[in-house]
Write a structure and sequence with these properties.
With about 450 residues, the chain is an all-alpha fold. The protein has helices spanning about 5-10, 15-35, 45-55, 65-75, 80, 90-95, 100-125, 130-145, 155-170, 175-200, 205-220, 225-240, 245-255, 265-280, 280-300, 315-325, 330-350, 355-375, 375-395, 395-410, 420-435. Helix 2 (about 15-35) crosses helix 4, helix 10 (about 175-200) packs antiparallel against helix 11 and helix 18 packs parallel to helix 20.
Length: about 450
């Protein structure tokens, strides 16, 4: 005669031992959590015991853990489950004769659901991040953004990497959604700074990786200003790598993210102008410069994250001078000299500890190139020697590449063999030989 156990197990497709064993162990784990009895987590059943239950070869009902698990699985007392069902009896009808048990079961289910909800609420309230932690990360980022343009890159790189690693670690924990967005924004900014620093250290591949991760974080944070800034950074790296079309594509892609405010759009249009100039597409370059001026007029006073992520008027001026130098005709060179000279004046009006040294150097090198193209070799040389003095204290890849370009241009002029020209060439060569200081382990990720 079939027992209720055999009947129910067969109806549910549990008549094979391996299938029933999985169900039994899963129920044990559920009860371990629900009843806070961790010993249940390892409860299992042997094939011999399963066979005895199926055949009804049971002299007494199981006790303790086995009783709890079987009653959870079949929702009836084990004495009834493993007894002999009367001929034609329906299992559900038989179990209805135990109203006290059914009431207790319903009470257990209701209270268990309530406890599950309470446990979820307790977990949801847990956080590994508090307002103080976020405020400290923000303060560190703002300080780095403000001081980056004036500091040596190598020690700053390690400082930023440490804060980024801490931010990544916090993101792996539990925090409210608003805190998670703030952490992704912080991580995106920090990866952007590391991308900039990696490029300044001459490591383009590492820089591009950092920028891609930073953009992903900006996406997760839902922050258009950071998306736009990072697309601009990617465009700049393509520009310096001689990939003008990629630079244009990336800059224009960045313009698809209207920033919350600030100057990110002005920067993107200015980068696109330089890239068009590099490609010899001078009409498009002029249109991009006009767009930069238009966006400057629309830019609000806030929205930038600050410091190195701002795009001040003087930076726009020397981006315009670079664009005009790509054109190269007399009128364009004259305009470039005016723009670069004004940019240098504005940069130098800042306090010494607040000057953007790399940008000032690039503006001076545009001024040097415009003077060289106007056959003023001595005026050009004066600017280059000033830049080399700055580069000895704060070396960056973009300045080094511009110095190399100037040296090539100078060698190709009629004055290339003059004493002044040879002195500049020797100074640039000495700078190149010194090379960047290596990051220990060669890792700038």
């Amino acid at each position: 005669m079939r027992t209720p156990f055999e009947t129910l197990a067969t109806e549910r497709g549990w008549q094979r031992f391996s299938v029933f064993q999985r169900r039994y162990e899963a129920a044990a784990r559920t009860l371990a959590d629900r009843l806070r009895r961790p010993q249940l987590r390892t409860a299992t059943i042997s094939a011999r015991q399963f066979t005895r239950w199926m055949k009804g070869e049971v002299e007494s009902a199981p006790r303790h853990d086995a009783r709890l698990i079987l009653e959870h699985l079949f929702e009836m007392p084990v004495e009834q489950l493993l007894g002999t069902a009367s001929p034609g009896a329906n299992v559900s009808e038989t179990s209805a004769h135990r109203p006290a048990f059914e009431a207790g079961l319903k009470e257990d289910v209701v209270m268990s659901a309530a406890r599950d909800s309470a446990r979820f609420a307790a977990r949801a309230e847990q956080t590994n991040v508090g307002p103080h932690t976020l405020d400290q990360i923000r303060a560190d980022i703002m300080r780095i953004l403000a001081t980056y343009p004036n500091r040596s890159v190598e020690p700053l790189f390690w400082e930023v990497k440490e804060i980024r690693d801490r931010t990544f670690e916090l993101l792996e924990g539990r925090q409210p959604p608003a805190y998670t967005r703030d952490l992704y924004l912080a991580a995106g900014v920090l990866c952007g700074i590391l991308a900039n620093a990696s490029f300044d250290l001459g490591r383009l591949e590492a820089a591009e990786t950092q920028a891609r991760v930073g953009f992903l974080c900006a996406e997760l944070a839902g922050h258009n200003g950071l998306r736009a800034w990072l697309r601009g950074l990617q465009a700049l790296m393509a520009y310096w790598d001689g990939r003008g079309r990629d630079a244009v594509r990336l800059a224009e892609a960045g313009l698809e993210f209207p920033p919350e405010g600030g100057t990110a759009g002005v920067r993107l249009a200015s980068i696109a102008a330089r890239a068009y100039g590099q490609l010899g597409m001078h009409t498009d370059a002029q249109d991009a410069l006009a767009l930069a001026d238009e966006l400057r007029g629309q830019a609000t006073g806030d929205g930038d994250l600050g410091g190195m992520m701002e795009f001040p008027r003087e930076k726009q001026l020397f981006y315009a001078s670079t664009t005009l130098l790509w054109r190269g005709d007399t009128h364009a060179v004259q305009q470039a000299e005016q723009h670069a000279g004004e940019a240098v004046r504005l940069y130098e009006s800042a306090q010494p500890g607040e000057r953007r040294l790399g940008e000032l150097s690039l503006a001076r090198l545009d001024l040097a190139r415009s003077r060289l193209m106007a056959s003023d070799v001595e005026g050009a040389a004066a600017q280059v020697h000033t830049v080399l003095g700055i580069a000895a204290r704060r070396r960056t890849e973009s300045v080094t590449r511009c110095l190399d370009r100037f040296a090539r241009d100078l060698a190709g002029t009629p004055a290339g063999a003059s004493r002044v020209a040879l002195g500049v060439q020797e100074a640039i060569e000495a700078h190149r030989r010194r090379g960047p200081r290596a990051i220990p382990g060669g890792d700038v990720q």
